[in-house]
Amino acid sequence: xxxxxxxxxxxxxxxxxxxxxxxxxxxxxxxxxxxxxxxxxxxxxxxxxxxxxxxxxxxxxxxxxxxxxxxxxxxxxxxxxxxxxxxxxxxxxxxxxxxxxxxxxxxxxxxxxxxxxxxxxxxxxxxxxxxxxxxxxxxxxxxxxxxxxxxxxxxxxxxxxxxxxxxxxxxxxxxxxxxxxxxxxxxx
Length: 188
Known about the structure:
By secondary structure, the chain is α/β, with parallel strands linked by helices. Helix content is 36%, strand content 20%. The chain has one domain (6-65, 72-95, 126-187): Pyruvate kinase, C-terminal domain (Pyruvate Kinase, Chain: A, domain 1). The radius of gyration is 16 Å and the shape is globular.
């Protein structure tokens, strides 16, 4: 098999259109009917909707959990309502790779929770890789994915999308069953 992968010189929002295009191309080639997209305030979600809605895929938008509201990173109720009006499923939940109870104990007592070690390992690829895996896990745990089918997960660095992967989904508690099958795009 020969696979085309986009490697961007720099991370960020400017890579969104190319990332979505290669994800669409691969979804069509593989017959993938479910796509997870990370979106903080709806920009990437709306762009993904334009690309994937005509294909009839199950498009799931995963947002940052509300414990980060003080940083202004969380989707507002109005932003969420606008996306839902487009027919998008929008999920906000506990981050699968940190920021939960384990992180609270690690912050107070020292050390790292196991999910934080996985998070830091995925960051070695890029921020989008960590977020793409995490959002897929969160969507699975929320019951929004068909676990018998492959999924494309799309995320980015700060704003927009610069990372896309094809994976075999898993729940956080069955993490070892998850497989990243293809890397479609990532920053260098």
